[in-house]
Amino acid sequence: MVNITGKILRILPFREAKVANETKKVVDLIIADEFDYKRVAFWDEKAELVLRGEIKAGDMLRIENARIPEESKKSDNKRANVGKYTMIAKISTNIAALSHALPQNLTVLAVARPEREQVCIAGIDENGEWIRPQGVYEDDIFCSGEENFKNLCISKIYVDAWRGRRPRKEDRFFVYGEGVERELNEEEGREFLERNVDASVDAVFKRGRSLGLIKPRILHVYDEKGGKKKEYIRFNFKDPSGRIYRRWSCRCNAFYKTWNELKKKHRWTYGLRMLRYLRKNDTYLAIGLTYTDYGVDRLEYGAYPMIVGVLVVPSSSFK
To answer: What's the per-residue H, E or C state across the chain?
Structure first.
C-alpha cells in the first residue's frame, strides 16, 4: 500500500477492464507532487467520483492505501490503483506540481488527425532529438479554447520513458503539457527546418529512426475514399535522392483543414491549386512509421510509412 499526495494534472478517458470475467469501469489520473508523478487508476465507485465531476483536473488530493500493482513493483513504480478500501480527500494545500522536474521544449512538427480519441504528436527537442509523446488525447490538444500543440510552435512538456508494448526509438510517455510557449516566426521556422532536414527517406528509416523530415518535390496530391465513408489525402513525391514514392497517406490535421477549406471554395480545381501552392513555397514533410507488428512480410521499412506533418514556408527564392 502507498499514500499519494498531489495535484491532478490530467484525467484520461474512461475505459473498461475485465477482472475475473467481470467488466469494471476504470479511469486513469495523472497526479503529481513537486518532484514526480503517478498514474493512478480509479476503479468502480471511485471512478464514478470522476464521472460525476466530484473529482476533476486541478484538484489537490490526499490518497491513502492505494495499491501498487505487481507489474509496477518490478519496473517503474509509477502506477497505483484506487479501489473500495482507499481513502480519498481533497486538500487545500497548494502543490506546485512538477516544479522540480525537468521539462522539455518541443518544437512541434506533426499533429495528426485524432483516431480513437488519441492524437499522434511529434517534434524535436532542444537537443535535436525526435520525440513522439504517447498517450496524448484530444482533451490534451484543446484546453479552454487554446491549442496546446501546433506545428512550428514550441510547447513545454513533461515526458517519461515509454513502457508500453511495441516501443519505437522516439516514443515517450506524455505526462503533462503546459501549452504553447511561443510560435516560430517565418525566418526561425525556415532556419529550423533547414537545420533538421534529412537527406532522404532512406536516411531516416534505414538508420533506426521512425521519424524524420524531408524536403521533397511534390508530384501529386489527391484524396481517396476509404472504408466507412472516410476520405484520405495521399501524396506522390520525389525525395532529395531522386527516388519516387507513391500513395503515402497524410495524417496532418492542419493540412486536412486547409485541404477541405480549399475543396469547399474551389470544387473542381482544389487539387491543382494545392499542388501549385506546395510547389510555389518550400514544403517539408514530417514522415513517420507505424508500429511494426502487423504480421505483414516484406515491408521495406518493417512498417507502413506515412506523412504526419506538412510544413510550408514561403520560398526563400522569393526573398
So the answer is: CEEEEEEEEEECCCEEEEECCEEEEEEEEEEECCCCEEEEEEECHHHHHHHCCCCCCCCEEEEEEEECCHHHHCCCCCEEEECCCCEEEECCCCCCCCCCCCCEEEEEEEEECCECCECCEEEECCCCCEEEEECCEHHHHEECCEECCCCCEEEEEEEEECCCCCCCCCEEEEEEEEEEEEECCHHHHHHHHHHHCCCCHHHHHCCCCCEEEECCEEEEEEEEECHHHCEEEEEEEECCCCCEEEEEEECEHHHHHHHHHHHHHCCCCHHHHHHHHHHHCEEEEEEEECCCCCCCCCCCCCCCEEEEEEEEECCHHHC
Say what the pLDDT of residue 187 is. 96
Q: What is the pLDDT of residue 261?
A: 97
Question: What CATH class is the domain 2-90?
Answer: mainly beta
Q: Give residue-wise pLDDT tens across range 229-273.
A: 678 899 999 999 999 999 999 999 999 999 999 999 999 999 999
The architecture (CATH level 2) of 104-183 comes to Beta Barrel (2.40)
- What's the pLDDT tens digit per position in 216-239? 999 999 998 866 667 889 999 999
- Condensed to tens digits (0 to 9), the pLDDT of residues 280-312 reads 999 999 999 987 655 556 788 888 999 999 999
Each domain of the chain, given as residue ranges in start order, spans: 2-90, 104-183, 188-318
Same fold, 2-90 and 104-183: yes
